[in-house]
C-alpha cells in the first residue's frame, strides 16, 4: 500500500499533478483544492491511495490523511467508485460530507454530478455511521477561491482547462460552460495570467449552490 508520495512538483493541472520521486514522475489524480496548493518546482507531500484494477494502477493524491480516509470509505457504498468519490470531495470537504450524511441531507449529496436522489438516499443509508463525526466548522473545497494557486495560464487560455476539468468530474457540457461564464469576471481581474485552480474552485462553488 502507498500511504504518501513526496517529491518535487513537476507539473500541475486542475485535477492532477505529477511529482518527481527519485527521477520517476508519478501522476496523482487530485481535487482542485489540493492542486491549488501545489507549485511547480517546490517539494510536496500528498497522502495517497492506490486504486488497482485489472488493466490499470491509478494513484489519487490528497492534501490530508482525512481526505484519503474519506475517499476510501466513500467507495464502500454501492455505486461509488474512485472517480465519483473524488467528485464528492471536489464539491464537499470531508466534514461537510459527514454533516450531510448525519443530517440525511440528500440535497447536498445530489449537488455532486452523477448522484441522483435515489443514489444519495442509498449513500446515506450505507455510510451514515461510517465516516464518523465532523471535526468542526470548515469552509468547503469549493469555497472561497482566494489565495495563490499553483497553476497559472494566460488570461485567455484558462477556459478550456477549467471546462475540461469540470467535464472530467462529471458535469455536463452545458453546466461547465455556464460555470466558466460565471467566473470569467474573476479571470479578468487577474490581468495577464489566470489562476486555473482558483477559477476551478470558484466554478465548483457556483455549481454547488
Automatic annotation (TrEMBL):
Arranged from A to Z, the UniProt key words for this protein are: Cytoplasm, DNA damage, DNA recombination, DNA repair, DNA-binding
Which coarse location class applies to the principal site listed for this UniProt protein? cytoplasm
Gene (name only): ruvA
Summarize the protein's role.
Answer: The RuvA-RuvB-RuvC complex processes Holliday junction (HJ) DNA during genetic recombination and DNA repair, while the RuvA-RuvB complex plays an important role in the rescue of blocked DNA replication forks via replication fork reversal (RFR). RuvA specifically binds to HJ cruciform DNA, conferring on it an open structure. The RuvB hexamer acts as an ATP-dependent pump, pulling dsDNA into and through the RuvAB complex. HJ branch migration allows RuvC to scan DNA until it finds its consensus sequence, where it cleaves and resolves the cruciform DNA.
- Subunit structure, per the record? Homotetramer. Forms an RuvA(8)-RuvB(12)-Holliday junction (HJ) complex. HJ DNA is sandwiched between 2 RuvA tetramers; dsDNA enters through RuvA and exits via RuvB. An RuvB hexamer assembles on each DNA strand where it exits the tetramer. Each RuvB hexamer is contacted by two RuvA subunits (via domain III) on 2 adjacent RuvB subunits; this complex drives branch migration. In the full resolvosome a probable DNA-RuvA(4)-RuvB(12)-RuvC(2) complex forms which resolves the HJ.
Q: What is the taxonomic lineage of the source species?
A: Bacteria, Bacillati, Actinomycetota, Actinomycetes, Jiangellales
The UniProt entry's GO biological process terms, in alphabetical order, are:
DNA recombination; DNA repair
Q: Which domain of life is it from?
A: Bacteria
Q: Give the InterPro entries listed for this entry.
A: DNA_helicase_Holl-junc_RuvA_I, Hlx-hairpin-Hlx_DNA-bd_motif, NA-bd_OB-fold, RuvA, RuvA_2-like, RuvA_C, RuvA_C_sf
Coiled-coil boundaries: none
State what protein this is by name.
Holliday junction branch migration complex subunit RuvA
List every stretch annotated Domain III. Answer: 156-209
Protein's UniProt keywords contain tRNA-binding: no
Q: Which family does it belong to?
A: Belongs to the RuvA family.
Q: Can you quote the domain comment? A: Has three domains with a flexible linker between the domains II and III and assumes an 'L' shape. Domain III is highly mobile and contacts RuvB.
Picking any one GO molecular function of the record gives: four-way junction helicase activity
Localization per record: Cytoplasm
Output the CDD domains linked to this UniProt entry.
UBA_RuvA_C
One GO cellular component term noted in the UniProt record for this chain:
Holliday junction resolvase complex
Amino acid at each position: 500500500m502507498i500511504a504518501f508520495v513526496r517529491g518535487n512538483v513537476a507539473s500541475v493541472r486542475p485535477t492532477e499533478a505529477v511529482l518527481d520521486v527519485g527521477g520517476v514522475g508519478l501522476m496523482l489524480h487530485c481535487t482542485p483544492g489540493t492542486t491549488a496548493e501545489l507549485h511547480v518546482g517546490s517539494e510536496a507531500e500528498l497522502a495517497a491511495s492506490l486504486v488497482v484494477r485489472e488493466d490499470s494502477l491509478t494513484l489519487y493524491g490528497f492534501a490530508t490523511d482525512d481526505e484519503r480516509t474519506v475517499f476510501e470509505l466513500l467507495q464502500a457504498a454501492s455505486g461509488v467508485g474512485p472517480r465519483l468519490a473524488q467528485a464528492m470531495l471536489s464539491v464537499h470537504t470531508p466534514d461537510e460530507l459527514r454533516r450531510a450524511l448525519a443530517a440525511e441531507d440528500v440535497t447536498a449529496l445530489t449537488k455532486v454530478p452523477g448522484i441522483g436522489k435515489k443514489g444519495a438516499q442509498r449513500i446515506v443509508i450505507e455510510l451514515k455511521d461510517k465516516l464518523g463525526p465532523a471535526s468542526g466548522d470548515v469552509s468547503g473545497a469549493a469555497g472561497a477561491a482566494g489565495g495563490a494557486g499553483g497553476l497559472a495560464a494566460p488570461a485567455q487560455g484558462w477556459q478550456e482547462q477549467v471546462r475540461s476539468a469540470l467535464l472530467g468530474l462529471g458535469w455536463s457540457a452545458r453546466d461547465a460552460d455556464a460555470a466558466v461564464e460565471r467566473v470569467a469576471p474573476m479571470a479578468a481581474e487577474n490581468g495577464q495570467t489566470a489562476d486555473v485552480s482558483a477559477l476551478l474552485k470558484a466554478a465548483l462553488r457556483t455549481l454547488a449552490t
